Amino acid sequence: MLTEVAHGAAARAALADLAPYVEGRSSAFSTGAGWLAAAARHLPGEPVTIVLREPGSPGSTASPGRVVALAPLVVRRRTGVLRVEVLGGELNDYAELFHDDPEAADLLAGAIVAWLRGQRRWSLRLSQLAPEDPVLAGLLARLPGAAVVPGPPMPRIEGAGTDYRLTRHRRRKINTDLNRLAADGHHAERLVVDDPEALERWLPRLVEVRRGRDHGSGRRSHLDDDGTRAFHEEVVRDAMARGRAVVDLLVVGDEVLGFTTTLRDGPVSRLFDGRVAQDWMRYRGGIVCEMAAVQRAIDDPEVVTFDWLRGRTDAKFGNAEIHRAELRASSHAWIDRLDDARARARARVKELLPAGLVHRIVER
Asked: Could you tell me which residue ranges the BioF2-like acetyltransferase domain spans (predicted)?
């Protein structure tokens, strides 16, 4: 088996060449070729690909061997340590190390470890992988001190449209919000955007609504960063062009009160993004749009699961929950201790900062 490791521009080119391989094995939007290509172009860090390939024809460079495994990674160097994640990093709700069979998975684990051994100081954080992924087992067996921990809860509705129905209480609450708007003299409309031309009209406004709500909650927004914003917009545009995205809007004129963006992965509808506008929170526009997305999934006989993605909140309801897995390993134990100490320090500072100061910080 041949191992090919590429960095930077060469890794981006490898991802482009391997797009059909990825698409044939991707299980979710954030493991698809478009997501990985956008991440490699726009997100911080240097992309790295580790590819396993069968030997090609003897003496032939025109017929490379068949690809049997791929690890799309990203690396960043901080405090003298090479930080290694699955490409897409913290933005991945689902991540994947691609392989054709258990044997290829074990070989890919060996190739990743061999590459890591060539680095001086490193930290490996492979998040949102399937717990049963055989690559995880291969890495655990080869990396002393490695551990696999559960990822955050991911609530979902299983049996959407068959076993599960929206309760009358939930439907009544949406009508209450819409009636409140009318009573206050606002003519609100519920819009559905499902074509690229209409998306271009609303996308800049959706970005600003998301940033405004994040800042209003006392945190920085991912979309404050130009690269992450470009990544986000490319992902949404690509999904809309492929017929896999729908945006629900609640608007008063050109003012967006709330929105959701759902992405379709075969029989699964996933709530990719959504916010209520900071200045219109009284009318719960985000929840109005969420209920529209859920109802659409329930009404579609081809949808069997509605996926809220990561995080458990009062607004997310359903009848099931899953956890993905994160593998943690490092070249030296002191790296883990340092990372844990910094995480605790950040949490303490956040708890102690007055809310007003937090708001002023994120608005800078």
From this structure: 168-315
